[in-house]
Amino acid sequence: MDSGFSSQHGLSSNFRASSVRTSHPGICSPNNCCWRFATSQSKSLTTPVVDDPIQNRFRTSLLAFIGRSRAGAEAKNARERGYWTPQILPLNSPFQWIVGEYNDAEGAARLVAEHARELAAVIVEPLQGAAGVIPGDPSFMHALREATTENGVLLVFDEVMTSRLSTGGMQQILGVDPDLTTLAKFVGGGLSFGAFGGRAQLMDRFDPSRPDALQHGGTFNNDVLTMAAGAAGLTQVLTDAEIERLNGLGDRLRDGAI
After folding, report:
1. What CATH code is carried by the domain that includes residue 104?
2. CA 20 to 30 Å from 75, out of 8, 20, 196, 228?
3. Residue 14 is assigned to a structural domain of this protein
4. CA dist 100 to 66, 94, 127, 140, 173, Å?
């Protein structure tokens, strides 16, 4: 079954299974984007291994920041820093993690430059939820974009928590265009769902018709119930006015709690 979202988030039928292309002016602009659906948010955080034809090698290291809950770096640093808890579980990820301090723009740029030869991607949340709802400083996010671009490293925004803040996610608010983005349940109408997407040049590596295609399996990636709920939510519920109302409620709650 072919399914996808158009630039207006409506269903279309001219895309590969579990895949969607969009030129939506928000997320991933200004590039033509391709999205792939996943069963859950964790499965949407795939390993971005980059083939470097010039050096004939693979970059297999990832840079994440202390406090991330799904990158596998949080558990390692929590244990080393003495605040290991049963709720923080290490992930046995088959790649090397490089860990930086969140919101340290200068330090992050230095790490990207120092590890550029083996660094495949920088994965960052625009707002760290599990670490205590820490907003990413705009200068930090822009510094990551600049450093990754200069060194040929992918920038991945984990917008599982923040993509609902505008029609183009937090990246639209910040004015930063990542190479890849991950999304989760609200795009599926609240049902179990994940998605990752980005520049078509990158996402085309998942095209199953390619002899060198990257594998992306998942029995329920294209679950019809989730697709129907997502289409209804994104076309009939999540309007600009509703986003503004919800954000206003959050602002009132935060202001009253301070």
Report:
1. 3.40.640.10
2. 196
3. no
4. 6, 19, 15, 12, 24
User: What are the angstrom distances between the C-alpha of 247 and each of 175, 187, 241, 243?
Assistant: 18, 17, 10, 6
Give the alpha-carbon dihedral of 106, 109, 111, 114, to 10 degrees.
-120
The range of the structural domain enclosing residue 48 comes to 21-257
- How many CB atoms within 10 Å of residue 109? 19
Check whether 9 has a pLDDT greater than 70: no
pLDDT reading at 146 higher than 80: yes
Query: Where is pLDDT greater, at 76 or 116?
Result: 116
How many domains does the chain contain in total? 1
CB atoms within 10 A of CB 107: 15
> In one letter, which amino acid is 258?
I
The answer as to whether 3 is a domain residue is no
For residue 135, is the peptide bond before it cis, meaning its omega torsion is within 30 degrees of 0? no
**Close Cβ partners of 138 (under 8 Å, ≥ 6 residues apart):** 174, 175
Tokens coding 37: 């659906």
Residue in 33, 70, 74, 65 with CA at minimum distance from that of residue 168: 33
